[in-house]
UniProtKB/TrEMBL annotation:
Function: Catalyzes the condensation of pantoate with beta-alanine in an ATP-dependent reaction via a pantoyl-adenylate intermediate.
Note: The reaction proceeds by a bi uni uni bi ping pong mechanism.
EC number: 6.3.2.1
Assembly description: Homodimer.
Active site residues per record: 37 (proton donor)
Organism this protein belongs to: Empedobacter falsenii
Protein's name in the database: Pantothenate synthetase
Sites where the protein binds (R)-pantoate: 61, 154
Family classification: Belongs to the pantothenate synthetase family.
Length: 280
């Protein structure tokens, strides 16, 4: 496994692979790696000649400087996990390697998809995400890039950014990787107490019950009401639950309003913000 800290050292390696017509799978991360990330590495290894993972805590996607400071950094553990899972290259740039002095996020027009849910909760967040992923795509020049569907809205943003920037990369969404309990793997889970970790699978359980109700013929309003009540009787504080069209991410009133539908939830366990979603 080869580790690069600078773009100027990464570039010749990429050029050499491209000259040999090798395919490159890429997983951009912010570190604090877990089994969810490793499932992306395995998918990339199965579909490409080489796999590259980047580790970079991107400052332009944090609204709150405290969150940036608190974000877990576990570099040695990350490198060990990647080596065990057969990653070929790791790109661990500095801020200076990717951003000019005083450079902020580029402003994109994503239509409705960054105006809802996480876009409302975290203004500017998706411009930061799109900016850094675009920079990383240009540096790594991947054939395919892999993203977990836990951050489904982020995948939609990246798909739109790729269109707008006219980048030649296939975006591969991967199913949410869950513990046996149903809890979605997340770097934030490390901040949960023992009790919160024990309670957290209730979130996926509520989402699964919502899908069951839809299959029994319940409408959107009834299901939203059910989910809100379930959270009132849970140890979590619900921030939002939305049922949306997967394409536009706009809320729907009836299941007949869209072909592909997904339910999104954000809830707090103490001060830890947990997100999850499920396809209806």
């Amino acid at each position: 496994m080869v580790i690069f800290n600078e773009k100027e050292k990464l570039t010749p390696a990429i050029v050499e692979l491209k000259n040999q017509n090798k395919t490159i799978g890429f997983i951009p991360t912010m570190g604090a790696l877990h089994e969810g990330h490793m499932s992306l590495v395995k998918a990339s290894k199965a579909q490409n000649d080489y796999t590259i993972v980047s580790i970079f805590v991107n400052p332009t996607q944090f609204n709150n400087p405290e969150d940036l400071a608190k974000y877990p950094r576990t570099e040695e553990n990350d490198k060990e996990l990647l080596m065990k899972n057969g990653c070929d290259f790791v790109y661990m740039p500095t801020v200076e390697d990717l951003y000019e002095a005083n450079e902020g996020a580029k402003h994109y027009d994503f239509g409705t998809i960054d105006q809802v849910m996480e876009g409302t909760s975290r203004p500017g967040h998706f411009d930061g995400v799109a900016t850094i992923v675009c920079k990383l795509f240009k540096a790594v020049q991947p054939t395919r890039a892999y993203f977990g569907e836990k951050d489904f809205q982020q995948i939609r943003i990246i798909q739109e950014m790729v269109k707008q920037e006219n980048l030649d990369v296939e975006i591969v969404p991967m199913p949410i990787h869950r513990a046996n309990s149903g809890l979605a793997f997340s770097s934030r889970n490390a901040r949960l107490s023992t009790q919160q970790t024990s309670d957290a699978p209730q979130i996926y359980s509520i989402l699964s019950q919502a899908v069951k109700l839809k299959n029994e013929g319940k409408d959107v309003a009834e299901i939203k009401s059910f989910v809100e009540n379930e959270f009132k009787n849970s140890p979590f504080e619900l921030e939002y639950f939305e049922i949306t069209d997967e394409e536009t991410l706009l809320s729907i009133e009836h299941f007949s309003d869209a072909k592909h539908i997904r339910g999104f939830v954000v809830a707090y366990a103490g001060d830890v913000r947990l997100i999850d979603n499920i396809q209806f």
